[in-house]
Every structure is written in C-alpha cells, then in structure tokens.
Amino acid sequence: IVPGGIFDPRELIKYAHDADAIVAQFAKLDKPFLDALEHCRIIARYSIGMDTVDLPAAHAKGIQVANVPDYCIHEVANHAAAHILNALRQITHSRDLLLRNEFDFSKIRPMHRCEEQTLCLLGFGHIARELYGKMKPFFAKVVAFDPYFSGQAAYPDVEFLSLDDALACADVISVHVPLMPATAKMLSDAQFAKMKDGVCIINTSRGTNVDEAALLAALESGKVRAAGLDVYADEPASNSALYSHPMVSCTPHIGAATVEAQKRIGAEIVDIITNFGK
Ligand code: NAD
Questions:
Q1: Is 126 in the pocket of ligand 1 (CB under 6 A)?
Q2: What is the pTM of this model?
C-alpha cells in the first residue's frame, strides 16, 4: 500500500515496480511508469474514468486495465444537481456575503426562474441520463449534445442538438463527457463566446474538459454568471483565482463520496483482481 498523498509516478514506481496487480485512483500512470513495471498484468482503476492511465502504453505491455463504470451514477448526478441549484440560487455566494456582513441585493447577480430556463447536458451517458431524470421537473427544456449516443428514441423530451446549437440556447450547461483528446478543453474561449450571457457552467466530469483560464475570463466578463466545479485540471486542487472567484462554488472531487458507492467499488475491485485470469 502506497502512503497517501503520493501522486508522482516516479515516486510511485518505487512501491509498484514488482506488483502483479495494481489498484489506483488519482495517480497518473504514465508510459515511463508502465514501462518500469516488471510483471504487472492488471491495473484496476478505483473509478469510472480511465483518463489517468496511458492506455496504449498499458496495452503495448499486455497489461489489462479495468474500471467500475456504474458504482456512483446516483451520487455524481445528485452532486451535479446540487451544483446546478446552488449556482442558480447563489446559495454559497450569498452565504459568503452574509458571513462577511456584506449582503446586499446589488451584490448578487440577477436570478431567473428555473422553470423558464434550458438545461444543456454535454455527453448523455450514465450520469447525464440520471441527472436528466432528476432535473427535468425543474427546467422548461433539456437539450443534449452527444454524437455517440444512439438511444434518442427513449428520450422524446430531450432535444439532441449540435454542440454550437446546444451552447447557444442553454441557461445552464453541465459537462458529463469522459476526458479524452477530443474532449480536452471542450469548453474554451470560442465556445464561451457562443453561449448566452449569464450562463451557468457545472463540471463534475474531469477538470481538463473545461479550459480553466477561459472560464475565469468568462466569469470576470459576466458571460458566465456562476460555476459549480467538482473537478480540476490539477488535483489535488490548489487555490487559484478561479477557485476563489465569488461566483464559483468548489467541491474537492467528492462527487462519488457516499458510504454505499465506496463499499460497492471496493467489492467490485476485489472481484476484478481475484477473478483475473480465471
Ligand atoms: P459514460 O461513459 O456513461 O458517458 C459519457 C458520454 O459522453 C457517452 O454517452 C459518450 O457518448 C459521450 N461522449 C464521448 N465523447 C464525446 C464528445 N466528444 N462529445 C460529446 N459527448 C461525448 O460516463 P459517465 O459514467 O456518465 O461519466 C461521465 C463523466 O463523469 C466522466 O468524465 C467521468 O470520469 C466523470 N466522473 C466524475 C466523478 C466525480 O466524482 N466527480 C465520478 C465518476 C465519474
């Protein structure tokens, strides 16, 4: 067991070089790390996402990589829902003002009736579909962008649009795509420019899917009214102008954090490792 807080692959390899199987969560398992493994045959990701492992390098060495794709769908959907309502109702922002004895209606940004607004889901996979079910009663309309989703017929109330059209009509945009080369910085300056003024951005997927510098600029210009973030380009997240912006609500990648989800993934990981090769 590697002591907590070690994420640097060059440090990790000292512990892992002779392992037969590896269980990893936040650590980045890059090509030099994978190349230095002496006889590892399986890496089990303690997660849904596969983005922390260099998959081509793992496959080139014959190492199988497994994840647990469905252990925290309710949790992350609920977490995104909480960030959406927090951003729309400016709960953390008004609380901060209240605690500093600075509250005044002029200090909160204009709020609008949720039931007259449009929610946009980027990616329509497990978590986004669960979130859709929970948020549908709150919003006038739900639109989605997911060029790989083929089950539209089962969702007649969702309007499936091109990325540009989805961005242009949304009041709230919630990101649910995996992190891959095609989705990295999927929301950057050019995409923010296409959005409505005063849009809210929620990201519970992976930090790098949103260009953090572009998001900060859009918050400062007022293009983005509020943001809710659970994930960051660098994790563990360090403080920055983005995270401390008054209209940003931050949680430290706790979307999957429930006792039930953690029990479930622990049991599944044990099964994956113990049944490997049987
Ligand atoms: P999923 O694989 O079920 O869904 C992802 C969807 O994104 C798929 O429908 C896919 O077709 C779509 N997609 C892929 N590329 C796309 C693109 N370029 N444009 C638009 N859509 C695209 O994944 P999921 O379980 O719903 O997870 C979604 C995200 O949540 C992932 O990034 C995952 O890593 C993250 N996640 C976060 C936490 C957390 O604690 N915050 C926990 C679990 C998962």
A1: yes
A2: 0.94
